[in-house]
Amino acid sequence: MRLDRRTVYVTAISRVGFAVVVGAVGAASSGTPLAWVALGGVLLLAAGIVAEYVRWRVSRYRVTAERLERRFDFITHQRRSLARERIRSVDIAANLVQRLFGLAVVTIGTGQQNDADRIKLDPVSHAEAERLRAELLRRRRPDPGTQPAQQAQPAEPAPGTEPAGGSVLARLDWSWIRYAPASFVAPLLGAAAFGAVLNASGWFGLREGVLEWSFDLLSSAPIVFAVVTVVVIAVVVGLIGSLVIFAERWWDYRLDREPGGTLRIRRGLLTTRSISIEERRLRGVEVVEPLGIRLVGAARVDAVMTGIRQNDGDSKSDLKTLAPPVPRAFADQVTADVLTEEVAPTVAARLAPHPRAARGRRLRWALLGTLIPTAILAGLGASLTGVLLHLAWIWALVVGPIAVLLALDAYRNLGHGITGGYLVARSGAARRGTVALQRSGIIGWTARQSIFQRRAGLITLSATTAAGSGAYSIFDVAQGDGLAFAERAVPDLFGPFLERDEPGSP
After folding, report:
1. Distance CA 264, CA 167 (A)
2. CA separation for the pair 300, 279 (Å, rounded)
């Protein structure tokens, strides 16, 4: 089968917009005659259309009873195939132009992280994408010879329809958008807005004029008013930007459990995405609470799963996120539903606190992070300018208390425990994460101990797994308690490497 021919039209429309923008910027910034710019735009458009037409002509794919195959026959010949029993994910994405033509991009993977274990069909019709997803994720039924010949097989759902027997675990509630400004994205967007204005003005040779106009405007006002004005503008821009990003990313969000053991996340406005996660790939769930989100009582839910792709044009967080920032109680409910538990392990586990020596370590790091920059600024101020001296005491006065508060919060957040088949570990202040990791998914332990930890009797244990980040750590736990906990969590994995004191020995 061929890819959809309408990909040529999609490329033409995309290249027209790109050529117009590049041509306008080039003509304005370099003074090139408009005729030459138009000619370059036409050539760029024609080259893109021809290349896309050739790609469409020489690309083929097929689905057999055993394999999915893709072929590319041009100057070089490429053959790629995946065994159907190894296929673990079928993700569907479509940008705005592709959606207008009823097209979608299908990415089929085996749960591994390298590109050799993925096949991308770019693009096919949306109906064909849904058909491929349903067919490739359907697991084989038992051999007909083991069941009565007259037994009827259940019919497959039509492409694009809701599968019978599925359940909705979560659906978008627009009240969640109130959590968007609390994320770290908002202030970053506000700061990035000024850089974007400068870059755009530089394309047209107006950067110096914009800077001069801004400095003249701010210098004519009192310094306090100027600073407040800049901060207010950045906050407003960041606020609006965070709301827009949330709406575009999580539009029509829905988390479903489908028959056959598959979780499906659908979301997106301009670019729609459909991400399928085979539940056999799940090794747990992490409840993530960045500081701003945590202060407003919300949390995000991420899947701990095998085969998270690293380089597919999207972030790892997007691929593994099961729910956006939502009320913490709802995040716990999603966690329980995804893991098919009555109560979320992140709630059911009784987390053991860590020794006070762990608090001391965090306080010392906080003080060092405050005093070292203060000393550097003071030293430079004594030799260069008194302005740096003022910056030194301002840094110590403002940053010091904040660092101490974060250190104390980081200590309070430390905890570890076991509930049922899950190991639960929590840590972090700026980003608090509580992970519930299947004990059966732990394949090793790493014990680390610095010279300062040895003096304090502390140790850091990392549970190694083939899923998620690859390892999840329990920081600064008492050495004896930590080693005993590791052996209790996964018996006989760490035990053979431990030396036990003889009974009655000191």
Report:
1. 10
2. 19
What average pLDDT does this structure show over 198-208?
59
Provide the β-strand partners of residue 273: 93, 267
**∠ CA 296-238-297, rounded to 5°:** 5
Say how far apart CA 99 and CA 248 lie, in whole Å.
Answer: 15
Tell me which residue of 155, 437, 114, 166 sits closest to 276, measured CA to CA.
166
Instruction: Please provide the average confidence, as pLDDT, over all residues in the chain.
Output: 83
pLDDT of amino acid 45: 82
For residues 397-405, give the mean pLDDT.
Answer: 94
The answer for 31, left when phi > 0, alpha when psi is -120 to 50, beta otherwise, is left
What does the buried/exposed string (b/e) look like for 171-186 if buried means 16 or more CB atoms within 10 Å of the residue's CB? ebeeebbebbbbbebb
Buried b (16+ CB within 10 A) or exposed e, 317-326: eebbbbbbbb
- Predicted local confidence at residue 482, as pLDDT: 93
Question: For residue 277, what pLDDT band results from cuts at 50, 70 and 90?
Answer: confident
382, two tokens = 């004594």
Long-range pairs of 429-432 with CB within 8 A, sequence gap ≥ 24:
429/291, 430/290, 430/291, 430/406, 431/288, 431/289, 431/290, 431/291, 432/288, 432/289, 432/290, 432/291, 432/294
| Strand locations in 236-350 (E) | 254-258, 262-267, 272-278, 282-290, 298-305, 321-327
pTM: 0.80
Mean pLDDT across 32-53:
77
Q: Spell out the residues 6+ positions from residue 40 whose beta carbon is closer than 8 angstroms to its own.
A: 19, 23, 26
| Strand-by-strand arrangement of the 431-438 sheet | 321-327, 298-305, 282-290, 431-438, 422-427, 415-419
User: What is the CA 273 to chain-centroid distance, rounded?
Assistant: 14
d(CA 263, CA 257): 5
The tens digit of pLDDT for each residue in 139-194 reads: 654 444 444 333 333 334 444 444 445 689 999 999 999 999 888 776 676 667 66
86 pLDDT tier (thresholds 50, 70, 90): confident
Average pLDDT of span 341-357: 95
Tell me how far CA of residue 56 lies from CA of 4, 5, 52, 53, in angstroms.
8, 7, 6, 5
Q: What token pair was written down for 272?
A: 């729609």
Q: Is 352 helix (H, G, I), strand (E, B) or coil?
A: strand
Do the beta carbons of residue 325 and residue 250 sit within 8 Å? Answer: no
Give SS3 for 469.
coil
Do 117 and 49 touch, CB atoms closer than 8 A? no
Model confidence at 259, pLDDT cuts 50, 70, 90, reads confident
DSSP 315: -
Pairing outcome for strands 77-83 and 89-94: unpaired
Burial classification of residue 391, based on how many CB atoms lie within 10 Å of its CB (0-12 exposed, 13-18 middle, 19 or more buried):
middle
